[in-house]
Amino acid sequence: MSWITNLFKSSLPADFFTGACDIHSHLLPGVDDGFPSKEKTLEALELLKKQGISKVKMTPHFMKDYPENTRENIEKAFKEFCEEAKGRPMPQLSLGGEYMLDSAFPQRVEEGLLTLNKEFKMVLCETSYMMMEQGAKEMLYDVMLKGYQPIIAHPERYNYASMSHYKRWKEKDYLFQLNLLSLAGAYGKPAKEKALHLLNEGMYEYIGSDLHRLTNVKEMVSSIKLSKKEIDSLFLLLENNKRLG
Ligand SMILES: [Fe+2]
After folding, report:
1. Across the chain, how many H-helices and E-strands are there?
2. Is the pLDDT of residue 43 over 60?
3. 87 C-alpha to center of ligand 1: Å?
4. C-alpha span between 72 and 175 (Å, rounded)
5. Cα 77 to averaged position of ligand 1 atoms, centre (Å)
6. How remote is the CA of residue 4 from the centroid of ligand 1, in Å?
7. Rounded distance between C-alpha atoms, residue 46 and residue 118, angstroms
8. Beta partners for 153?
9. Around 202, how many Cα atoms within 13 Å sit in the side-chain half-sphere?
10. In 70, 123, 149, 244, which residue has its Cα 20 to 30 A from 108's Cα atom?
11. Dist. CA 222 → ligand 1 center (Å)
């Protein structure tokens, strides 16, 4: 971004996170590559509360790399965490999942997927960054036929995906969730450029942190510089998040 372009861009407003609902996080401790301990999670939740975030959905990874992450085990871990965290300052918590479209997915569907919204059965799905695994396209389509509404997590992060992929997904009515930190370049320049393009094309419906740890988050958020139109678009995504409940 040239300095001239930068002149017309600004940071996120101070009240950006006030009342926000984060729909994608790896805060459930010790179950995936996210937060490793209850203490670290509590520290992060307290900070999110201070930032004004009112709701957080914990969305641990469900994938073949974590075979022990069955619905039953994750629900148990969530319940235990909530019990232990009772009375601590934190946003309101709920449980969802981030489902990798891999060979473990059919089994997870069989158990019933953890959704972001009960009424519309919205389910957060991801693919590997390098390529779609064999059968992933069909899995997405089948899950929709079973009455779920797929939300594609961070489409900007998929190296293999071009605009034609995004358009095909949109034609199938899959929804898109932006990772806020993609706009800070946290996943590299191509992901940042794609995120800005998709945002300006109005292709996202939701926004999330995909928080795995606290390192550098504050600095990254403050480094985000956007046009007024882009910031307005982010506020619309936050409104959609709230409607998920
Ligand atoms: Fe994630």
Report:
1. 9, 9
2. yes
3. 27
4. 27
5. 18
6. 34
7. 27
8. 177
9. 1
10. 244
11. 21
Dihedral angle sign, alpha carbons of residues 111, 74, 149, 186:
negative
Of 114, 131, 96, the closest CA to residue 23 belongs to 96
Say how many Å lie between the CA of residue 61 and the centre of ligand 1.
7
pLDDT at 171: 97
Calculate the alpha carbon distances from 51 to 128, 197, 218 in Å.
Answer: 31, 28, 11
Determine the pLDDT at residue 2. Answer: 60
For residue 45, give the amino acid letter.
L
> 24 CA distance to ligand 1 centroid (A)?
6
Encode pLDDT of 68-81 as tens digits.
999 999 999 999 99
Enumerate domains of the chain plus CATH numbers.
Answer: 18-243 (3.20.20.140)
Would you place residue 99 in the very low, low, confident or very high pLDDT band (cuts 50, 70, 90)?
Answer: very high
**CA 179–ligand 1 middle distance (angstroms):** 9
E strand or H helix at 242, and its extent?
helix 228-243
Residue type, 183: L
Question: Residue 96 pLDDT more than 60?
Answer: yes
Contact status, residue 161 vs residue 190, Cβ threshold 8 Å: no
Q: How far apart are CA 74 and CA 68, in angstroms?
A: 9
Six-digit token string for 6: 């930068």
Q: Which amino acid is at 33?
A: D
* Residue position matching structure tokens 């009375």: 87
pLDDT at 86 exceeding the cut of 60: yes
